[in-house]
Structure prediction request, 88 residues.
Amino acid sequence: MKQIVTLLIVLSPLFGLSQNARKLPSGDYISIEKSKDSTATGKTFTSKDGQIYPVYANVKGKMFHCSVSKKTGKTYRRYLKIEGELKD
Prediction:
């Protein structure tokens, strides 16, 4: 029994140490959550207060970004309603 516990303690750091992160233009890094049913588009969403979020697409092609609630700390998907494109 003691050997099994020791083996689990030794092998536990091998799993779950990596974390996905994205580099911001300012040079800082932010963590991003990976979801099995969504893919990163490489595009960003800028909110009214100036925060920049990476944009993901779900299986059906709907675009969203992930945000964290200030009260609970939970991550939520905020789906984007595309109204039109701006010309440069």
Summary: The first helix runs from residue 2 to 11. The mean pLDDT is 79. The beta strands are 21-23, 29-31, 38-46, 52-58, 63-68, 75-79. The two ends are 67 Å apart (CA to CA).
